[in-house]
Design a protein that fits this description.
Layout (H helix, E strand, L loop, with lengths): L13 H10 L11 H14 L4 E5 L2 H12 L4 E6 L3 H4 L4 H6 L2 E5 L25 E8 L10 H13 L3 E6 L2 H8 L14 E5 L9 E5 L7 H7 L7 H13 L2 H20 L6 E2 L7 E5 L2 H7 L6 E4 L4 E5 L6 H17 L1
Parallel strand pairs: 2-3, 2-4, 4-5, 5-6
Antiparallel strand pairs: 1-7, 6-7, 8-9, 9-11, 10-11
Helix pairs in contact: 1-9, 2-9, 7-10, 10-12, 11-12
The structure holds pyridoxal-5'-phosphate.
The site of pyridoxal-5'-phosphate has 10 residues, from helix 3.
Amino acid sequence: MRAFASDNYAGAHPEVLAAIAEANADHAVSYGADPWTAKATELIRARFGADASPWLVFNGTAANVLSLGALTRSWECVVTPDTSHLHVDEAAAPERMAGVKLLTLKTDDGRLSPAQIEPLLARQGDEHSPQVRVVSIANSTELGTVYSVDELKAIANVAHANGLLLHIDGSRLANAAAALGTSLGDITTAIGADAISLGLTKAGALGVEVVVFPNEPPAGFAWLRKQHAQLASKMRFLSAQVVAMLEDDLYLRAATHSNAMASLLATSVTAIPGITITRPVQANAVFASLPPALADAVRPDFPFYTWDESTSEVRWMCSWDTTEADITAFTTALQSAAAAV
Ligand SMILES: Cc1ncc(COP(=O)(O)O)c(C=O)c1O
């Protein structure tokens, strides 16, 4: 199957699988006191800062839930776009597991603007009102857009000026860094993020994400991870993936490629009758509207999701292993189907 449904449809990168196989020798201390975890920590600190504190977990929902749970108390809430993954695609895990209330905001393109934050703060200090504590944004966003460094700084500044913290859902942080030509640290710790969910799975790992704090973690974070069933016993296999993804900048090569494939896809389909690109293509997602009959005609061979039934908008995701041949085959299928419907 060659799919444009999700970057999670792609397999694991061969360099990651090789690293896991290589780690599968002899015995190693469990729960993270092993050389692979030490190396992963070193590589993360080289990117996020010498004092950064990394915590490996199994998936992105866990990274978000743990980040938000660590940053908030039970009466505090999290401001996030109404399109955010943690609001619409995590089955209320933040509410149930982190115990946070989410305050959602409408955005034009998935990106929060700093001006949207302060109006929510009128009742800070009022014991009857939930207290805003965290702003959580994703980069790249769920709508395939990317916050610039200046936009991130502006949000961090408004948050901090008002005593709030900034969480970045970096499920696709690699795609944002590749799009902006920055390092991972430039768009997280350097702009003042207080917790980061660093995604590596979509970029090519088999399955590992990292909660990164710029300094010491909030008190008790080790226990919080364990309570959330996110402490891997054979940690070396998670850590080996982190090492493989970061050591020779595999995450960046992979994301640069998937971004380029999205851009190629968007260019390739624009001339096809009935297809309109609906959003800026800034990372590895392409959003388009097309007649449902056209979408249905090609979907069996190239699976993808409808994003919004009401507008017939679909989302096409490119992955680290999307090839130019995939784009050509998909475009050709769309062209033929468009001529037939
Ligand atoms: C922006 C964003 N955050 C978090 C996640 C959660 O990842 P997982 O499915 O590994 O829990 C996803 C997954 O699609 C995502 O797109």
